[in-house]
Amino acid sequence: MEAFEAIQKRRSVRKFTGDIIPREHLEKIVDAGRLAATGSNRQPWDFIVVTDQAMIEQLTVVGKWMRKAGAIIAVVVDPYSRWWLEDGSAAIQNMLIASTALGYGSCWVEGDALPREEQFKTLLYIPKGKRLLALVPVGVPAEWPTIEKRPLDSVLHWQVY
Fold first, then answer.
1. List of the chain residues with pLDDT < 50
2. Distance CA 72, CA 51 (A)
3. Residue 160 lies in a domain
4. What is the CATH number of the domain that holds 39?
5. Overall number of domains in the chain
6. Residues 6+ apart with CB under 8 A from 94
7. Residue 106, domain member (yes or no)
8. What would the DSSP string read from start to end of 25-80?
9. pLDDT per residue over 68-97, tens digit each?
10. pLDDT number for residue 147
11. Helix, strand or coil for residue 143?
């Protein structure tokens, strides 16, 4: 799938079939995150790919809909970097687009996961001093949302607002 097509098609998918995702596809998705823009090339990220169903089940306390994801990618960042939040967000966006390009659905789960950050850090053996920025469930979509985005002419301004 061409880049602009993947960007246009990407939506937050919350219904998966439960099918397994090949390891090489998960590696491509994480590699897209690794290649994201990063302030001063700090690359303050690590990625934990969870495919074990028992572990996925423990992560679903933030959303039972994640049960049928083929994998959940935990995005771990090191806040020593001044731009850790921006860098981690860029990595997540790259992974969302890469997932779409490979035919998978994905979703950025942050707000529901952050209150359980310490619990998930313990579960995933994330070192002290690192932050769990988000969980990214990835899977074969059972359905693809068709929510419309605002039209370009309603958000694009030239020279001034």
1. none
2. 7
3. no
4. 3.40.109.10
5. 1
6. 32, 33, 35, 36
7. yes
8. HHHHHHHHHHTS--GGG---EEEEEE--HHHHHHHGGG-GGGGG-SEEEEEEE-TT
9. 999 999 999 999 999 999 999 999 999 999
10. 87
11. coil
